What does this fold into?
Amino acid sequence: MHLLTKQEELLLLAIFRIRKDAYLVNIREHLKKHIGKEWAFGSIYITLEKLCRKGYVKNRIGAPTASQGGKAIKYYDLTESGIRILKENKHLHDKMWKEFAENTPT
Amino acid sequence: MNNTPPYICKWIFKYFIPEFDWEYFFGGIDEVYCGIRGSKGKFLADIWYWTQLTKSLPSLFSKKSGGSFIMLKNYFKTGIRTLFRHKGFSILNIMGLAVGLAVCILIFLWVQDELGYDRFHTNADRIYRVIEHEELSSGEILSYSQQGPELAPILKADYPEILESVRFRVLGGRLVKFGDHKFYEKGFAFADPAILTMFTFPLKMGDPASALTDPSSIVISENMARKYFENEDPLGKILRVDNHTNFIVSGVMENIPSNSHLKFDFLAKFDSIKNFGQPVTGWRSFYLDTYVLLTETADHREVDQKIKNVISEHSEGSSFLIDLQPLTRIRLFSNAILTPHVDGDIKYVVIFSLIAVFILLNACINFMNLTTARSGQRAREIGMRKVVGARRKELVHQFFGESLLMAFISLIFAVGLVFALLPLFNQLSGKDLPLMVLGRLHVILGLLGITLTAGLISGIYPALLLSSFQPVSVLKNAFRSGLRGKAFRRALVIFQFVLTTVLIIGTVVVYRQLNFLRQQNLGYEKDQVMTFRLPGNLREKTDLMKTTFERIPGVLNTAAASTVPGRRRATLTLENWEGRNSEDRFELGILDVDHGFLSTFELEMAEGRFFSRDFTTDESNTVVVNEAAIRAIGMKDPIGKWILGSELKIIGVIKDFNLRSLHHKVAPLVIGMRKSNLHHLFVKIAAENIPRTIVSLKSSWNSLVPEYPFDFKFLDEQLEELYHADQRIGKIINAFAGLALFVACLGLFGLASFVAERRTKEIGIRKVLGASNPVIFHLLARDFIKWILLANLIAAPIATYAMMKYLNLYAYHTKLGPMVFLIPGLLTLLVSLLAISWQAVRAATADPVKSLKYE
It folds into this structure.
């Protein structure tokens, strides 16, 4: 099983939560809103491309829009394997955290 | 509207990381950029854009190829190591670049300041000054910044595009009195109340909307508030001006920033100017500046067309056309306009920028020369890199990186130099640039830009040359150090010295011209003449003062006149004289004098007689004209004929003298005797016992007119002031020429030491075979001397051309003699010989045994 980095995990989740038409700008906005961290464009873009290569995400080129100066937007959608890897990671996560939550002295 | 983000930024990133798929990436950033730009403006958005891209860099690099980032580290390391291994060369390079950059920064600050004039006004881009134009019969068009008092109200009332109009006039030399404090004040201005709302002259105390509604109210600057009232509350205090008019302080304004073309310390309501002898109605007396504020939507060219003929519509017989000059252009683009306050000129901005570029270029050339000359030492490294798979492009980047590293190290030193030199530069340039300017964002961006450019320029040739080496020949050791690019290097050195020599020739010419101005015969005697102002009711006592002063031993003569020679004088358009048979019109200067004028200034008559007490009619309807006026109108036998009006008879023709500065030719002049216009008193004293004469003058002044301070200037000192701007420019050019020479010699020094090192063995053998020290010295110095002589030959015609242009700014100027070219030639030769002689002498006197064992 592939262990996702935190950033990868958050990006996949963001794409999932946005559901439709997730792309560079609104993914970044989303992360900013919910996590409060403002990632560099480059860093997000590179990770997205990496996820594409690994097959967790597939991209689709939209129609040219005025908001991007007449250029097309690259949208990202989760793939089957993307959802699977998220589930696996979540499972693993829960397992690892479980003990911590139960046995931490307060 | 153009919404595109900075192009260069995109270009830089695309160029350096070409493999990256940029399109969709930029798409996203651009979108956010447009949003920010919409809400926060272009400047902040641009900054955001750059920061975002820079922040993205690390990730982009790691994506590009794992190795590239590691190689960057390697390049950096190699760069630093080379820097430290060749300490001498590095120091030369960094020193040269630091000096070049420091000069650039200083000039950049200077240019910033010049270009920033009057931009602090909130409405700066909507304020205009009215300019009028008049065509003379010679075809020459005269432009004036000054108009009559009735224009401004008409402009505001009749044209909806003009929101506000302001009349403005400084009447210098007012005597301002409060209690025991009495001073002559230069910056005493009169203006319409709207000046406080239209321009941005914020008030510390008082209300801008009402501060000038009362004709007896006055607004003063903070400095003046302190000077007259110290810690007291200035509001409501009464200032007595010229001993005849009282003003009540109604506001205190912040001191006017130094980059304002409008300068004043006192601001009274325009209407009160009538108490100071100026009319507040009429179209014909042109003595005040008119400023207008346009509406936000108005286009000033359209308004130009509409208001073009206003003056001729309202004032019969006038042929003046008017148009509008943008406020922000007044400082630098007023050279062709006759106006009281011009001292900036776009020409100097261009010249100084060019000099800065020259010096920086000199420093960059040093870097190119020294790096390529030593290319042999790097050849193996380059060969090795190529063998293990470096592509040419990567090597190019490596060498660019090294030059950029050098440039940025130099920047640190340059900023230090600027800190040290700024006070000196301020003194030299007469500006008041604070050290803090270095902290401003656009200045920092400017500095980084300059440094980047310097780094790229100096890197370009080494990068291309070094990366072109063939690994096979380099590694086989067939490569001879430093032979590559020798011709190019020679060309660069010659180019450097051409630039330097042109600058030095420029310095010599400017110096000679300034000397020439000082020694030029003005046509009148300017030594030991004291000048006094005669404000207000002091004028009534002129005759009494004159007779009293003339009785003092040591006083030779006294005179009164309407203006001090060299100062601006009144003019009118001459279009009426006896025997006029054409439509000719001329600009005519007017001067009012009294009987003593001719003898005090030791002027001579060409024809006829000067005013005399023997003729009582002289005071009302006679005039004296100068030769230039007679020449202009072509009058024959002028004595007894009339000029200007049929009642004004010419009684004499005076020999031409320079009433204005030597920038201008002697212009037609008419001299009259209107008593009310005698604003200045001149006292000619003997050259002996000057202090004693002054003391007795002072006591006699104080007993006659105790309410006025005894305040005088010598005429020759005042004339010097006319050339202050020229002298300042001369000094700056002088300093920069010296720096250029210094930088060029640094390079020469480096090259000489390189040549000496390369020929160590040859020199050893020559010495063993019996060559004497002078022969060796000659051997080494020969090439350099040839280059410098050649550079001088090339520089001469370029400098001649440039200097002819400069000298033509003056109506009277010195000639370009052979000395102008010989002195700089000898100077560059001498200094560069000094620079290379240390190396040459060392090589020549070295022990041949050691040099043969070398390597």
